[in-house]
Amino acid sequence: APIGYKAPDEKFTEALEASLHLPIKLNLEQLCELYQEPRFKSELDRWMREEQGWTIYSDPEGIQDNLERASKFACYALVNKLVFHEALLKRYRAKMNRLAIPDHIDAGEKLRLHLEGYFAEAKNTTGDYETVFGEEHRSIGNRIPFYSDNAVPHWRTLINEIHKFDFSKLDYEIIGNIFERFISPEERSKFGQFYTRVEVVDFINSFCIRTGKEKIMDPACGGGTFLVRAYARKKELDPSRSHGELLR
């Protein structure tokens, strides 16, 4: 590649990374204030401990680390939803509306409810992806990215950045790469997020998929790299099979 050239995937993750800085920072500031309230502290601690499996600390440094991790994780999770929604438009553009934040939405809670409408539409249209868009939108993990009203214009900017990219030119691993790019290996271990590079996935699949007629199950699917590459290998081994046959 020419010197200075950046692949579309790299440009995309860099744009998201730049747009995410302020939403994470502003919502962290709100979390620090809200955490002083015993009822909120109890709810957030329960979410971090029981749903995320994190250790809850009581010292100032540990508390700050937990709150920063909560803000990052929740904002990254929201970005995954936004990116996945945009990717679905490639197939469902006639049935789904493109994400947009009207100018009159200036409060975090209004934005949360507005975006949940898009996510509900995506689930209803596709009949799938409950695990991506969430089933309980009122859970504290889904509310965290919207605690700061000041973050609303920055979420609007981020969505506009997503719209600038042609998803047909982005690699299918982009959702997994978002976590790889934004979160250090140490943080990914804390979050319980692990992504396997495509060349490693292909190597492992080569031992498991020999004819192209195997049935594949990935009980810990995550970003879906193993399943997508399994489909590609089955198609390569048996190109005569239809899309539906390859999925079975």
UniProtKB/TrEMBL annotation:
Keywords: Methyltransferase, Transferase
Gene Ontology process terms (BP): methylation
Reactions listed under catalytic activity: a 2'-deoxyadenosine in DNA + S-adenosyl-L-methionine = an N(6)-methyl-2'-deoxyadenosine in DNA + S-adenosyl-L-homocysteine + H(+)
Entry keyword Methyltransferase: yes
Domain DNA methylase adenine-specific: 172-233
Coiled coil (residue ranges): none
Enzyme class: transferase
Alphabetical list of Pfam families matching this protein: N6_Mtase
EC number assigned by the record: 2.1.1.72
Molecular function, one GO term: site-specific DNA-methyltransferase (adenine-specific) activity
InterPro entries: DNA_methylase_A-5, N4_N6_ade-DNA_methylase, SAM-dependent_MTases_sf
Name of the protein: site-specific DNA-methyltransferase (adenine-specific)
